[in-house]
Amino acid sequence: MTPPADHRSSALRSVARRATLGRSIGLLRSFPLEQSDPDAFYSGLANDTVELVADLWAESGDRSGSRPGRLPGLTVLDVGGGPGYFSDAYAEEGARYVSVEPDVGEMSAAGLDQAGSIRGSGMSLPIRSDSVDVCISSNVAEHVPEPWVMAEEMLRVTRPGGLVVVSYTLWYGPFGGHEMGLTHYLGGQRARRMYERRHGHPPKNYYGESLFEVGCAEGLAWARGTDSGELLGAFPRYHPRWAWWLVRVPLVREVLVSNLVVVLRAR
């Protein structure tokens, strides 16, 4: 029987304790910096993401390994790892970090060492099956045309008992349009044209090519229905714990959850 997709799942106890209003406000304040100060934005997001993975592993993963840190000796695969901001944060927790990124320009955007990065598509990961301990994608599913194909690939490459964490931005949430702002509520194509008229150049996230509509209900349906993993829980990534109930309310969750996290144990 699938456990409840909310904070009552025992696998989410540590995550729930850390989900304070102060953390939520801090993350929200950093969002406008994504384009103007990506170092500040992605460094903060990297630390928060590693905290999330470490908390989940502490509650639901095994504790094998001899290296120090909360992720001792684990291989963590980051699907859509971008320019490498996450590498140092994982290394500090004792993990071996590997990222897969399809865009060479994105891989080199920050000028960081990308020795542990592989060029490839999340929908066909160039990784052998059952080879990583943790597989995560952070704000990636909305950028691929077939997000649940990617999610199944993440389960494929994760060893039985390992963790898969899929976190993505909901289209009908306030951040669904990314740098296009709230104009995405007028339709993706129109929002793209409005952005181009206002700024004189196309947005970074091009609707229909690198930005797609993806919802909360479809992510939950995939997580509950896949034969390759056991759903441990689902929650809004940037909300305080007292707002996690929103995931359970149809339609409302599509607008107010903003970013959904689903956590599965690979079979």
Key structural traits:
267 residues, alpha/beta, Rossmann fold, seven-stranded mixed beta sheet, 18% strand, disordered N terminus
Structural class: alpha/beta
Largest sheet, order of strands side by side? 3-2-1-4-5-7-6
Quick one: overall form?
globular
Helix and strand element order: HHHHEHEHEEHEHHEHE
Given as residue ranges, the uncertain stretches (5+ residues, pLDDT < 50) are 1-8, 107-112
Average pLDDT:
86
Strand content: 15-25%
Task: Work out the helix count.
Answer: 10
Radius of gyration: 18 Å
CATH topology label: Rossmann fold
At the fourth level of CATH, the homologous superfamily is Vaccinia Virus protein VP39
Specify the biggest β-sheet.
7 strands, mixed
The helix fraction, in percent, is 25-40%
Q: What is the top-level CATH class? A: Alpha Beta
Q: How many β-strands, per DSSP?
A: 7
Tell me what the CATH architecture is: 3-Layer(aba) Sandwich
How many domains, as an integer?
A: 1
First-residue to last-residue Cα separation: 15 Å
